[in-house]
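Q: Protein A?
A:
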Amino acid sequence: MRLRLPPIIQLLRNSALEADKFLSIAWSPDERFLASGSDDKTIRLWDANSGRLLNTLENHESRVTSVAWSSDGLFLASGSYDCTIQLWDADSGKSLHTLKSHIGRVTSAAWSPDGRFLASGSADRTIRLWDAGRGNLLDTIEGHTDWVTSVAWSPDGRLLASGSGDGEIHIWEAGSGKLLRTLKGHKGGVWCVAWSPVGQFLASGSADKTICLWNADSAKPLFSLVGHTRSVMSVTWSPHGRFLASGSEDSRIRLWDAGSAKLLCTLEGHTDWVMSVAWSPKGRFLASGSGDGTIRIWDAGWRELLSTPEAQTVEVTSVGWSPTERFLASGSGDGAIRIWDAGSGKLLRTIKGHKGGVLCVAWSPVGQFLASGSEDTMIHLWDATRGELLQTLEGHVNDVLSAAWSYDGRFLASGSKDSNVRLWDVRNSELPLTIGSTREGHIGSVTSVAWSHDGLFLASGSDDKTIRLWEPESGNLLRILEGHKGGVWSVAWSPDGRFLASGSKDHRICLWDTVNGKMLRILEGHKGGVRSVAWSQDGRFLTSESMDSTIRIWDPITGAEHCAYRFPYTSYKLIHPTGLQRN
């Protein structure tokens, strides 16, 4: 696997103490500053852009093992081997409170998301909760049988996770201190824990050289990430939860795809333990602190990765399988279409021609041609093999959001933000048939279009919460299907043409009888908008993909859910032509 590695854009070093070990690093919420805790008992504040040292905070009597910013960026907390936590005014560097209660070294300190409370973990095997404003001790939580090495708040502030030298992760109810779940699976001490941005998943790094990804609700392990050759000291999620970075005693940083558990790349440069890694709040940078006396800031502009070995530095907005399933086309925010080998993940071709982001791509039935719709209001038809522009279809007056070929390849249907559906005879692009431009048409963006397999009917879904069925030959409206409570994002015909499935922003899938227009069934289970629906080739199963990071497979006859696949990040998922997901 080859990836374009992120370059180092800053190398921070304390010139007076080159051998100083950086044990902890943390970004300010606005990404302007970095705080570091080190072996020499100090906290340093750095300008992340220039690398200039701004301030040195001194009040601890031993090494500083943990630093953390409050969510508003006004305050810093630091934990130390002197058994105390210090609270600082980040602007002036003044010490505001010294929190004393632990009888062992403080290994970790973390702010609650609302900035009202602070949690600390210690070698005394306890977690302590503090009122950050007053500096008062609120609660002492006990349960681990060895050092508490790491504490982390869930994004909603309701739960606390703790890792320990006893090899266990505990999940606690923050308000009561009640132990809710124990996560077991590591074969060595747990040195670090981190919640995913959505709060459903947890990552842990261990002395057993692995990172584990857990379902925090069920306490079940999802993946074990293997690659480091020594203890994993730190883990951090990218802001959108798609990637993980890990730092290790082996002096390396490894970047992982959290959904597939694949190692994406290894960052080398440090010459001693990597004690801390931290993704910047906006995802633009990755920082790493090491025992070699340096902090490195890496450019993370490569973060928008298609789930392949190749890198894309722009947002992927649309994907589509070729009919043979050998190739994948992706449309991107940079106005380009990329063709990939689906088996190897190799980028085969980049096609450019649009003057705005590409919002939809569609292969012709035999795979010879590719259609793309864009923010520039144009539809381009391409020779998919050579990447040559064959035709430009003009007529829409706003973003082109969806496109679909008829099954004989003669016609193309397109839906737009201009509320219209247009039908194009690809042999005569100058004479499109516009449907929906009258009072019978949609009153919102047309987000999805789909042909029946016999080519006699066309369905369109819209932000106006309706599906409309059309006769393409005449452009006549046949039926309006109403029932969704949110915009319709996807429509798909059953192979025999008797039924239509629709996915919506309202989290539901609706099944319709296309003959009489009646709603047959509502499939409920998703907890986010349903972005895509697809039938299996034999019509026995229906697959749906949602913003809740799940893919669900349904029996369309009974409405029963067969199974659900969950992924520990929210991203664009591709439903395979057979109705099954493929990575």
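Q: Protein B?
A:
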Amino acid sequence: MKERGFFNGLIELPKDRAHWSITLLFIAFAYLLSFWVRLEWIDFAQANYVDESGEVQYLRPDMIRNGVALPNTHDSFYFGSILQKGHLGMHQDNHLIPSVYKNGMITYLPYLLLKFFPSLEIELLLLWLPVYVAGIVCIPIVLIGRLYGSSLWGFFSACLAGITHSYYNRTLAGYYDTDMFSITIPAFALYFLLSACRRNSIHYAFLGALSLFIYNFFYSSSQAVTASLAVAFISYQILLLFLDSFVIGNKNKTEAIWSHNAIFSYKSIVLIGFAAYAESWSGGSVVEASDGRFFSGILILTALWFFLNGLRLCKDGKRFKCSLLKKKLPIDFPRTLLPVFSLCVLIFVGLFGEIQGKIFSKLQSYVSAGEGKSSQVFSSNKGYGLHYLDVVSTVREASGIPPDVVRNRILADSPSCSCPRCLPQSEKNDAWIIPTAIIGFIGLIVLILRYWELCLTVPFLAIAYYCFKGAVGLRFTVHVGNVASLGLVFLILVIIWAVFRLFFIKPGLVPLKYNDGIKWCSWIFSAFVVYFFAFPNIQHAKNYNSHVVYPIKTIEVLNKLNEASDPGDFVVTWWDYGSGCWFYGDTRTFTSPAHQTFDNFLTSEILRSPSPSRAANLARLKAETFIDLQDKREKGESTFGTAVQAIFKDGTPDLEFYQGLISDLESNNSILPPKTSDIFLFLPYEILESFQLY
């Protein structure tokens, strides 16, 4: 195992070389810590006592339904409605609710559980699955530590990563969203790719490529992370080829080009390059349409792995021979074909893989929203295009946030988390605050200098940069916690071990036979320091008493709506609340947490209208236009993307004067399409609170 990096002998981890059984215990303990911390919110929501008559009385009955704590994010109801459609057969006419495959593992996993265990309730899965799944991220982080001879480093880092401020907020019980997968799969990919680099192992390179390939099925917005990791890995391999061949004074350049390291680089570039190109084949929408591309991608990757693993240089060093399962095949070819093949894959991926778009397209949408830019309809026709406010700019996760808040979300500050729940503003100004995340980033930079292959974490540093810059919001801090934890714990272990070596071992104050005892002392001291930095995250979890999205009284209103309506009827409400109207009201809406379209403009006009007639007429016009557009799409006809575009004839030479059109709808004599469904308005108090944004 060839190490590449600076400061060898100066910056050193206290190696433990733990047995596999110890590593497994570390994984179990780190997972249990993550699990235990996430029980905090359930204990808060379901707190109860038994009264004199023996009945269980809940302290917060508005957060409990049928003895189960309610979800605390709108996205939970979006995914729950998909499960209702797939498992219970509801919402069949609601085309905004996709199949269980469309969003990938976030809905497919609970769907499988419901199939195998029909007695389970959807609400129960929405509450408990984040608790069980979130801690899986501890596995690859502990293994990264073991890879470098220090399972303890991995264990301490995993304990911290599983409970970081941002990750906890987005994976606490009842917060059913994709974040429990969005950082776990990259963590596995990072471990496999680091293992491949350190061991020159085509097997780990295959597992890394496979992780990158299937990531899209676990997280539909994975393209940026997948492509960035692939680019980082391939760039690192090319850099090593260049250094070995032209910089680090190899007398025999030809020997360097055909060394074991170089051959591994050629092989691994093929695997990772294909994964970066074909990652979209594992997307839920692709699998929903046909799973052929998904399985063909896995088959191609596996075939490439078998083929590349079987390649061996002949004794003369001029040709490659091929073997399969240790059986020689009558295949051999000139050795130059392998780097040529690798180069062809790189060129193909560069030309047709849309790597730049995968990295920057999603980022740009959040950057534009954070800057408050509007969205415009583009049309090939010569016409006028209206500009609409991008509603993503009203989402806190996509808006600019003060740097101190970003820092605290990545890793909670010490000695106290500096969020308002843990440290009131009146006390914060005079408080002594250690920026834990910044220390973690310093540690990560030191880690990259010591072990060059850790440059694979640079994409996560880039995400942190955009978060601090304010270009993207709080949600993306969740992607940075893993690497910041690794950097923080690495720096703690290295500094403490260096101090112990300097004062006890090098001067010879302690006999050699007691060196292991000194190492144990450094580990124990490090454990206390890590606990000092981890505790504020646990403190935050105890204080983060998030409320439910729909209190029980609101659910009762939606149940009444369900009784008064048919499944084909529409509800006009703000986009956040669309999925709740599906889940509890069994009605249709125009938008939802997953459908933030230009139709929000009409919804805003309806909900804010001072004229009941205008609101009713605009709602009727919107609903019937919406239905008509869906009918045309089902027939394969070309039409507008949203109801608002169709009503205003947006992007065409016949663009309507929309202010006049809306004003004319105040008249009771307005000409409206025939009624095909009823329309209801859902305007809870929470929407009224958000009116200041619009």
